[in-house]
Amino acid sequence: MNKTGSIVKTTLKTILPLIVLAGAVFGFSKMKRQPPKPREVNNDKALPVRTVPVEKHDGTFDFTVNGVVVPFREITLSAEVAGRIVKKADVFKAGRFVKKGTVLAEIFADDYDLEVKRLQKSHEQAQNNVKELKVEISNTQMLIEVAKEDLDLQQKNVARETRLRGTGAAAERELDEAKKAVLAARNSLLQYQNQSRLLSTRLARLESEAQRLALDLKKAELDLARTKIVAPISGVIVQDHIEADSYVTKGKEVAIIE
Hints:
By secondary structure, the protein is of the alpha+beta class. Helices cover 56% and strands 13% of the residues. The strands form two sheets. A four-stranded antiparallel beta sheet has the order 1-8-6-3, with no helix packed on it. Strands 5-4-2-7 form a four-stranded antiparallel beta sheet, with no helix packed on it. The chain is elongated and about 175 Å long.
C-alpha cells in the first residue's frame, strides 16, 4: 500500500507541471491571435484649435521655475587704493543689477591728483635737463675737434721751427715757444675729452632718473584712475561692504558680484 501511494505521488509530481506548462502555452497563443481592441474616441471632449502663421519673436520669455540658482561667475571686488569714500552710486546695493564699467563708488582723489601733477613737473624738468646736457655734450665735441686742429697746427709749427733751428734760421727761444704751444694745445684737448666723458656719465644718470620718474608717473596715474571703483562684470550685487564717508584700505573687500 505504501509502495502504491509512493508511485502515485511521483507520477503526479511529474505530470502536473507539464499540464500547467501546456495550459500556459495554449493561453498565450490564444491571446496573441486576438485582434487589438479599437480605441474609443470621445468626440464630446474634443477642444477647438486655432492655427496662426509662424512669426519671429524678439526679446525674452518669462517663466517661473523652482530650484537653486548657481552663478556662472562670482567676483570679489576690492579697493585698489586707500582713501575715504566720497560718493556711492544709488545702484551700489545688494540685490541690484549693474552693467560692466558702471562706477559704483569714488575714493577721495585730490591727494592722488596732486601726486600726478608733481611727478609730471618732475618728469618734464628731468627731460629738459637731458636735452640741455645733450646740447652741452655736442658743444664739447665741437671744442674737442677745434682743440685737435689746434694741436695739429702747433705740432706742425714745432716741426718747422725745428728745421729752421737746424739751419740756424730760428732762435732756440722760438722753438721753445712752439713746444710750449703744443703742450698747451694738448692739455686743452685732454680737458675737453675729460669733460665729455663726465658729461656722458651725467647724461646716463639723468636719463635713468627721467625713466624712473616716467614709471612713477604712470603708477600715480593708475592710482588716480583706481579711485573710481568700477564693476568689472555685468551681474547682480549680492554683498556690499562700504558706505559713503567710510574709509577703505588698499585690498579691502567692497562687494561681491555674481
